[in-house]
Amino acid sequence: MAKDENLTIADIVNKAKMYLSDDDIDLIQHAFDYANEAHHDQFRKSGEPYIIHPVQVAGILTDLEMDAETIAGGFLHDVVEDTDVTLEKLEEEFNHEVAMLVDGVTKLGKIRYETKEAQQAENHRKMFVAMAKDIRVILIKLADRLHNMRTLKHLSAEKQRRISNETLEIFAPLAHRLGISKIKWELEDTALRYLNPQQYYRIVQLMKQKREERESYIEEVIGGLTEELKEVNIEAEMSGRPKHLYSIYQKMVKQNKQFNEIYDLLAVRIIVESIKDCYAVLGIIHTHWKPMPGRFKDYIAMPKQNLYQSLHTTVIGPKGDPLEVQIRTKEMHEIAEFGIAAHWAYKEGKQVKTGKQSFEEKLTWFREILDWQNDTHDAEEFIESLKIDLFSDMVYVFTPKGEVVELPSGSIPLDFAYKIHTEIGNKTIGAKINGKMEPLDYKLQNGDIVEVMTSKHSYGPSQDWLKMTQTSQAKGKIKQFFKKQRREENVLKGKEAVDKEIRALNIEPKEVLVADNLQRVFDKFNFTNEEDMYAAVGYQGITAALIATRLTEKIRQTRQKEQDLASTIEEVKTDNAPKRSHKKDSGVKVEGVDNLLVRLAKCCNPVPGDEILGYITKGRGVSVHRSDCPNVQTEEARERYLHVEWEDGNTDKKHYHVDIQITGYDRRGLLNEVLQAVNEMKTNIILVNGKSDRNKMAIIQITILIHNTNHLRKIVERIKQIRDVYTVTRTVQ
Ligand code: MN
């Protein structure tokens, strides 16, 4: 591509004749004549006739060997925007396809772009591609931008910067994505010249200083290799690889490298006939010079996403400097330079016009491109990336501030609102599209400016919204709103019901709604917090009565105990205590309460010396149990414990019932011997009960009167001495 001098229509026609039919040439010529007429009274900022610009754009497209419609589109790309010519006229004068291409380019020209962050740049690129619909629209737009960059010097400094930024962030990446490195490099280098002239000219200077040295070095390398390759009958074109200022700049600035450290300053490109030759040449180079570890890359076996293929290696060259080598076939070279456009040229005559095709057909077309690729996995990934980037079912719209928002196509303003923020979605009452009120189910179009109207008095989404919205994000948030709303109602309802039940038990809710008490109930029913509990009651997962019962359990027990104790004390004070069967002093005192009569429990029969506890009965005073009595070990019983002690002093005058069980071998005379032994100890026997089982096991139960545990122990020891006695146990009923 000639940068410095302008192409003429004759140059373009000559080039096009090399690969297009006569009919195609007629179309191109007609497009030029028509554009020339339409722009005849217009001039560019440089003072040149305006037509020079579309001619150069068409020239760039011809260099890419694009089809006739695309080149015609290049000539005509500015007529709808800048002259009286309409799309209808173009369609009449040429054909639908040319009109569509011009329409696409015109629409892309209306996208406003402001540099924000990387994400926004990516969204802009996506919107750009989605709006273009036909990939050739992007190629025309790239050619347009390339010529504008070449003539940027005529614009103001401010415009130069803005356009250069846009070029770096939108157009160069698009060229890269489509594999058109020829355009990509030129766009980047030119943009750098305007955005960072200091660095740009410094790099130019550095490269100039070493040019001669470098060129003779490359010549030496190529010379040597030519001999080698001749010997093995490999035909190769070799050249010093062109240097791209922007890539050097990036490595110096972003990777913080010195100019001398950048390997590809010394680079050789070798173009051969076949893939086999590529690897053969690689072998020769690696036997000649020592390869640098980690620098070999096989993009033939594993092509890059944009279909780029080549072998890359870096070796320690003849003078001990790193030397980068790229090896590829002619076909690969065309793809590397022209990318997707190169493929267009290969398929000449039967191009698929992507604009009209279904998505499936478009995919087929891309699969054809991928036929070169060996690695199917990569191929799938590539198709996947094209799906997103080129034909995605996405729509790209603007916020009023100019940010791009990406949504699935078919999305409506509500989807947009929920994407911005949940609260905006919930409070939406209307939408303005491009400044005009539209219904909430309006289908968003690429490039629409969407302004959502909200009201803080809105009651929130309606059920219809679930059906209208397109994105799962919006649907999810609407559902969430309904769920939350019902939950709030349920929580209120539940709390009311629980409070009511608690009050019915004569307890103030605030007495039981305290942390540790609540935690006990949460644990029991698997709630995580109070709201959960009320919500469950609200939607009747559990009854309020059950919650109230559990919540008040402790407080009710405590109250009962206090009440029982108080009434017992009251009985004593008023001397209304019922007459007990044995009025004898039990020998037990209750701490802090005088004269309180207590009963010894009949189940465990405590005797002085036993560890004991008091138990407040319901309405029958305090009973005294042995601490280990199984009858008072329940959780509920513990609530009613009362501290009691044996009175000090001589217990020899008092008698206590004790039940003892003796087991032994059932022989004649055993029972007699037991009774005799107890008698010997001067102890009264109240009750005797004896029986034996089938295994000749005798079980003897006696109730005796003793003074204390000492006395009891002596009796037990004595009985144990009797022949054939197995066990002696104190029993509990
Ligand atoms: Mn233009």
Helix segment tally: 30
Mean pLDDT: 82
Kindly, what is the distance between the CA atoms of the first and last residues, rounded to a whole number of angstroms?
112 Å
How helical, in percent, are the residues?
40-55%
From the spread of the alpha carbons, the general shape counts as: elongated
Strand content: 5-15%
Bound molecules: manganese (II) ion
Poorly predicted runs are 345-391, 576-583
Characterize the largest beta sheet: strand count, sense, and whether it forms a barrel: 6 strands, mixed
Rg estimate, integer Å = 50 Å
Which structural class best describes the helix and strand composition? alpha+beta
How many DSSP E strands? 21
Salient structural properties:
single chain; 4-stranded mixed β-sheet; 733 residues; binds manganese (II) ion; alpha+beta
Can you describe what's shown?
This protein has 733 residues and is α+β, with helices and mostly antiparallel strands. It contains 30 helices and 21 strands. Strands 1, 2, 3, 4, 5 and 6 form a six-stranded mixed sheet that branches. The protein is elongated and about 145 Å long. The chain starts with 8 loop residues before the first helix and ends with a strand. 33% of the residues are buried. The site of manganese (II) ion (MN) has 4 residues, from loops.
How is the topology of this model organized?
Elements: H1 9-17, H2 22-38, H3 52-63, H4 68-76, H5 79-82, H6 87-93, H7 96-108, H8 118-132, H9 135-150, H10 157-177, H11 181-195, H12 197-209, H13 211-231, E1 236-240, H14 245-253, E2 267-272, H15 275-288, E3 290-291, E4 297-298, E5 311-316, E6 322-329, H16 330-338, H17 340-346, H18 359-370, H19 376-389, E7 394-398, E8 404-408, H20 413-420, H21 422-426, E9 428-433, E10 436-438, E11 450-454, H22 464-468, H23 472-504, H24 509-512, H25 515-525, H26 530-538, H27 544-573, E12 588-590, E13 598-600, E14 612-616, E15 622-626, H28 635-638, E16 641-642, E17 644-646, E18 656-665, H29 670-680, E19 685-692, E20 697-706, H30 709-720, E21 725-730
Parallel strand pairs: 2-6, 13-15
Antiparallel strand pairs: 1-2, 3-5, 4-5, 5-6, 7-8, 9-10, 9-11, 12-17, 14-15, 14-16, 18-20, 18-21, 19-20
Bound molecules: manganese (II) ion (MN).
